[in-house]
């Protein structure tokens, strides 16, 4: 009697764990998550609570609910674990069926010098990915703190002085960042590469999308309900500075492009998009609908005094959407300013400890 043919062995999906604070989620976080996803099949992301971050690192800028939502919207993330322990263990990875943990190749200790991943390192379940040069939450907080000098507080209310300005620019090899260098390769890595289908309805959304946050995210999720293919018309730095003033944008156009491309609701980004939407632009991009924020949100006129949405309005291809979220970039900046001393102290503690550890490791 012939032996029964053996069935092919089923390969179990490799489940990867990555955790973090993910405060003010930016393209550096997204790039780490992208790299982690490439190491396996399923990416499980643990996000620390506000209490844990405050205890081991300092007060977060975004609330835990905001951070949970933002991480769920990154296109490489499959599962999110809320209130993840600050010190992961092999037992924790086993609970979620994860094979190993991935972390960036920068510092992985608390401000008190405790290695958050010692248990996983000792157990051989720790891998590293490359840290994204040119961006960090510490740096973004610093950029906003510097705005207090001239633009958000007058000198009588404690605007920063030259000494504070210098202190905010103290850098270490890990936390400190250099100017982000954009490349076509990085854009390709972040792009989905999915082409628009012939019958897809395209929704066009212009804006600055500076310090991409939950207000933006909820609006994009709402806009996605209006069509199949969401195109962001990202305004250039000079245009954003023209209509927002002060030191805006906080993030330059290259940083904003990558942050948007990491969002699962975004299909395509038009870089340095014209402020005024023309009929030629509508035809070239095959735009079916142009969307803007809820009624009452400001729309600065063009430099010639005209309405930037005049053409889509005339074509009956314009719609105001209310996402139900009132969060704005200005509100986020106000959070930083109101808690300036706490964030300044947090940054200094983190940078000081990192510099000490860098010298211990490299003897410099």
From TrEMBL:
Signal peptide (UniProt feature, chain positions): none
Enzyme class per UniProt: transferase
EC number: 2.7.7.14
Any single GO BP term: phosphatidylethanolamine biosynthetic process
Keywords: Lipid biosynthesis, Lipid metabolism, Nucleotidyltransferase, Phospholipid biosynthesis, Phospholipid metabolism, Transferase
Pathway: Lipid metabolism; Phospholipid metabolism; phosphatidylethanolamine biosynthesis; phosphatidylethanolamine from ethanolamine: step 2/3
GO MF term set: ethanolamine-phosphate cytidylyltransferase activity
Span of domain Cytidyltransferase-like: 18-141, 204-293
InterPro entries (UniProt xref): CCT (IPR041723), Cyt_trans-like (IPR004821), Ect1/PCYT2 (IPR044608), Rossmann-like_a/b/a_fold (IPR014729)
Family: Belongs to the cytidylyltransferase family.
Protein name: ethanolamine-phosphate cytidylyltransferase
Organism: Branchiostoma floridae
